[in-house]
Structure formats: structure tokens, C-alpha cells
Here is the input.
Amino acid sequence: MEESGNGRAYSDASTKHQDGITDVKKDEENSQDGKHELHPASQYEDSQCQVRCISCLSKTSCRIVRSRTKVMNILIEKGRPQEVQAIFDSIIEGGHKPSLVTYTTLLAALTIQKRFDSIHSIISQVEGNGMKPDSIFFNAVINAFSESGNMQEAMKCFWKMKESGSKPTTSTFNTLIKGFGIAGEPEESQKLLELMSQDENVRPNLRTYNVLVRAWCNKKNTVKAWNVIYKMVASSLQPDVVTYNTIATSYAQNGEASQAEGIILEMQNNNVQPNERTCYIIVGGYCKEGKVKEALRFVYRMKDLGLQPNLIVFNSLIKGFIDSVDRDGVTEVLKLMEEFGVGPDVITFSTIMNAWSAAGFMDKCREIFDDMVKAGIKPDAHVYSILAKGYVQAGEPEKAEEILNAMIKTGFCPNVVIFTTVINGWCSAGRMEYSIKIFEKMCECGITPNLKTFETLIWGFGKARQPWKSEEMLHIMEEFSVQPKKTTHLAVAEAWNATGLKKEANRILSAMKNEEMSRKTDREDEIPVRSLEKHYQKPGSIFPNQVQLPNLVISDQKGSGSATKRSRMVLRDTDFSLESSWTATRSLSLSHSCTFGARSPIICQKQSHGQLGMYNQFAHSCPLGVFLN
Here is the structure.
């Protein structure tokens, strides 16, 4: 079986802790004797705090450091590496000096979190404190650089390790081989295997070959991967299920699922039993190629292999048959699930719901949702999103809003996509007052609107013959630190143009061109401006307690800097200098107001950019039938 590089990095550094955190607390309680009195004077070189512990100053083993290092290791083993830094900081703040084991453990935790920017800092602290790195610390550093893809630094550390007299282990080589594989350089990984054969102290093990096989497979070179397997067998090592699954994955990802299935015969010839992952790889490969019936055939074959298909396999089949619009296939898979005693999960239900929603049959979509709730399966945010989007596509924004409210009541915080979807629904229905209410609710929930949100509102106001409000959105975007794009300005210009006011449309277009020219000049003349523009384009999420906008007031009810904001719309008629144009446009909008549910397919296409669309005739043309009675 494969071993984790990150796990090896810290497990070697840890001491046995069978009694766990209880013993740690006892150690700290017992450390209040003379040996651990805090000395008031000495300075710890690599921190802002002073070393006051007598044991640390005398370079003897400190119980506090040992016990807290043990806690750090326990946190890593429990999958909570993000808490390790705080324990390390408490050692420093308490006037103690971390040991080499402590630094090794910290480095392992940061590597798991992919916080690679701290590697050099930890190395500097170890060297600055006159500590001599041991093989375990070197391995941790090599692992950190390898995981980050910085193989140049990893190899430097490797040669430094040899120069210091520390002997690289098989684990060291495995880490480097894996690192070059991550970096997309399997040729270098292969060279390391040859280097191992020249070292008397190390021998390649099963993991060595498996990591090298994966490195070649990641480059889609299965021929080289097989050569590694042949070399493995020649060295008296037998491939395991991980070896064969790696090769099968490569075939499946490259559109050769039949080749992946052929691996099973090779496994049987070498007395290696396929596992559930083997089957999932093959089923997934066939589904990816659109050969769902072949995938189903293989599931039946799993019985002969003595394997039980799991829920992941069945969900893949269901999605495959839905994608190929095969209702009989879906029905057969559902029956198979019953036969194998495998119950559906939220992914199973959401996959079927999405099919009904895409076809425009929202009644059936809702039925599946109700069945899921009755089965005791809790809906997730994705399920609610399917319902909301489906109702919008079906021209029922009021039901989409009900879903939004239900999410909030059940503790789910709708994201910006769901809010924008519901806003789009009301815009499509020509009910801009409801769109604005959803926008206000969005702000109340602390969700920052993005470019899509504003472009949706701009399109909605344009559709409602209120181009002045479309233009006001540009000013509101500034207050939310959302940078308009060319498409945004074009949408505003189109809103003016749709009312026959081409002069105003040209004004917007001219302003857009002038702004583009100005930015181009600034980029050429002033390099610092680039960083300012990047900062400006970053969507803001923190607002002052009171922000006055052209059409919106956002205030904090609690008077605090919390993320939840209370907003209300203040629609104004005369804040703009184009009052005469506004009046003319308002009179046009009264005579061309949209009825509820009406929507122009052409405008919809421009506004949605392919994301959202109306139901219209789709349900009548869709061949998708009933999956569940």
C-alpha cells in the first residue's frame, strides 16, 4: 500500500503518545518545579519573545516543549494541521525554545496545508539557533519542496543532506521521485531510481516503483510505465492493486476504458484481487467515453469478480444514462441499487433532479426533492440551486424566491450565484422591484454582488425601458469595488439604444473608449498603476457603516463591522444630469411595459451569456421520459 509523504514527514519526528493529550497536560502540570522556572533575561534569537525557561537556556530537554510538540503531532494525526501553528506560537510566547523535533513537526503541518512560503523561514530559524539538522528534518524539508514543485531546492537539500553526513533513506528517494512526477519530469524520477541502485544503503521498495509508474502515467506514457513494472518484477517485487489501478486510471483518462478493463486479467494472472476503486475507474472510463451500456455490463461482471458496486459506481451510471437521455438505463440502475442493497444519497437525487430541471419538468423535479426529504436525506446547497435555477428557467421566479427563503430558514447561506439566478428570474419577468428586493436581501446576508449580478440588473432595467437605472448600476458597482468590463458598458449602451436614445448610447460608448485609452496610457507610463488596478478589480466584501450610493443606502443595523448588512433602495428620479432623457424614456417605458412572464429570447441570450435560459418550447421537444413513478 502507498504511504503518505506528508505523513512520513511528521510521524518520524513524533514520539509515542499512547496516553494522548491527558499525559501532555500532566507533563505541563508537573513542570512547575525548579527545572522549569522562567528566567527573566535571555533573548531568543529567532523570535520577538525572550527565552526565560532555565531548561531551554541550559539546552536540556524541556518538558513543556516536549509535551506541546506531542500535541502538535496529535493534531496532525487527527487531521487538524491548521491548529499546529497556534501551539508552536504558545511555546515561543511562553518563553521556551522549540526543539528540532518541534520545527520538523511545524514544517510537516505547514506542508500539509500547502503553506510553502514558510519553508525558508523555518530552515533559517533552525540554522540560526545552531541546531544541526538530522535526517528526519532533511526529509521534511525535501518533502516540503517536492510538494511545492520546487525540485531545484529539493535537490539542493538532498546534496546538502549527503554532505552533512546524514544518509538519505528509501523514503528520501521516494519523496524526490514523487516530486519530479508532480513537476512533470518523470525522466528525472527515472534517473533517481538509477541513483538508488548505486547506493549501498538504500533499495527501491514497492512504493518507489508505484510512484515512478504514476509519474509516467501522468505524462500519458503507459509504455514507460509498463517498463517500470517489468523492472519491478525483475527486482523480485510484485505489483499490487495500487500499481494496476494507476495504469488502469491512465487508460481510462486517455479514452481507453477497454484497455483499463483488460488490466483485470493481468491482475488475476498475478494473483492480485481488483478492489472497488478498480471497478470505479473502469465504469468511470466507459461513462466518460459515452459507452454507458458497456459500463453497466461491467457492473454485472463485478458479481463474478466477487465485488460489490458502491454508491459512487451507481451514481456514475445514473449520470451517464441521463447524459445519453436513456430513461430505461436509469430505471435499470435504480433496480440494481435495490438488489445490491445500496441506498441513494444526495448526489443520486440531485443528479435526477437536474435532469428534470434541464428538461423543464419542474413538477417532477420537485417530486424527487420531496422524496429525498422523506427518505431522511438532507438537501445541500447544490440541490437548492437546481430548484432555483429550474424555476427561473420555467418562468416561475416566485417559486425560485421561495427556494431562496427556504435555504435561509434552514441555515444554508445562498451564494452569489443563487441570488443572481433569482434576480435574473424577476428581471426576465419584468418585475424589477422584486429584483431589487432580492438584491437588498443579498446585501443583508453579507453576500457581495459580483459582475454577473450587476450585468443582470443592467439588462433587467434595459428590458424594463429604464436605461437611466441601468447606468446608475455603474456607479453602484464602484461602491462595491466591482470593476465593469467592456460587456458591462455595452449592456448600458444597448439599454439606451433600445429606447431610441442613440445619442445617450453613443455617449456611453465614447466614455468607454476614452477610459480604455486612458488605462492603456497609464499602463505604459506608470508601472505602479498596474498593482492599483489589480487591487481595484478585487471584489470588496467589507463596507463602511454608512455608504451613500446613487440608488442604494447600505447601513449596519448593529453599528458594527459585521459581514451582515441592512440595505434599502432609495429610487431617485433626478440625480442624473440627463433629466430630460429620463423623462422621455419613462414615457416610453409606460407604453412598452412588459407583462409578467414575458421574455425576449434574443435579449435573454445576450444577458445570460449562455448561463440561464427560459423554458419555452424545450419541454415539448425533450425526449426525456419519466424516471421514477
User: Anything to note?
Assistant: The CA atoms of residues 476 and 549 lie 6 Å apart. Residues 502-525 form the longest helix (24 residues). The chain has a mean pLDDT of 78.
